[in-house]
Amino acid sequence: EVQLVESGGGLVQPGGSLRLSCAASGFTFSTYWMHWVRQAPGKGLVWVSRISPDGTSTTYADSVKGRFTISRDNAKNTLYLQMDSLRAEDTAVYYCARAPGGTYGVDYWGQGTLVTISS
Amino acid sequence: QTVVTQEPSFSVSPGGTVTLTCALSSGSVSTSYYPSWYQQTPGQAPRTLIYSTNTRSSGVPDRFSGSILGNKAALTITGAQADDESDYYCVLYMGSGIYVFGTGTKVTVL
Asked: Residue B91: which of A14, A107, A11, A57 has the closest Cα?
């Protein structure tokens, strides 16, 4: 069974940093593209970032480019999102998700972790 | 900036059929955008229904189908059931590793 379990969310002050993790199991992690998607309270889904199976190719939404860094450790079956210079508008539930190909949307989702940016 | 637009809301009767659409602010949606569709109920993670235009995700009943209708991507629910009452989102692949989600459609079954 495919499982994606996010962790690392919490309350952070504006300008602070946070690192999210996503532990994957039930599939060959190193062969899948992985994504982060977020959802602000009461709002819609927003794509954040994507990483290739070998970690060499990454892309970001304009709203997070230069502040967020996606990475992965295939030996640990874990996806990461390093978030720096956090803003109030980054407050959201962050989902990690798996994609079956480099152009496809995601097929499996984690349950999400809440990030709150507030002073 | 690219905007992907969906109908804000739809109402469908139990057993009825509803077609949701996913449009680009400029241009036509084609299979080259690899449209995917997701269902989300309040407080839950999204669930994938369709990817790559018309491929159903594992375990998704065949009353959910994806297609291209005219210049939009479309999700059709045939024989709507009470538990289909959810928010539905599309996402389009814009190229160069960039994706854009649609604005979402709230479906009510009554």
From this structure: A107
Q: Which two tokens stand for residue A43?
A: 């709002």
Q: Which of A51, A107, A113 to mutate to test the interface with B (most CBs of B within 10 A)?
A: A107
| Nearest-by-Cβ selection for A109 from B46, B91, B104 | B46
pLDDT per position as a tens digit, A53-90: 999 999 999 999 999 999 999 999 999 999 999 999 99
Highest mean pLDDT of the ranges A17-26, A98-107, B25-34 = A17-26
Residue B32 backbone class (left: φ over 0; alpha: ψ -120 to 50; beta: rest): alpha
Q: What is the pLDDT of residues A84-115, one digit of tens each?
A: 999 999 999 999 999 988 888 899 999 999 99
| pLDDT tier for residue A14 given thresholds of 50, 70 and 90 | very high
Number of H helices, E strands in chain B: 0, 11
- Which two structure tokens, joined as six digits, stand for A78? 């874990």
Q: Which among A44, A48, A35, A34 is positioned nearest to A83, based on CA atoms?
A: A48
Identify whether the C-beta of residue A24 lies closer than 8 Å to the C-beta of residue A88.
no
Residue B80 is encoded by which pair of tokens? 């709507």
Cα B107 to Cα B83: distance, rounded to the nearest angstrom: 10
Contact between A12 and A86 (Cβ < 8 Å): yes
Residue B21 pairs in a beta bridge with B74
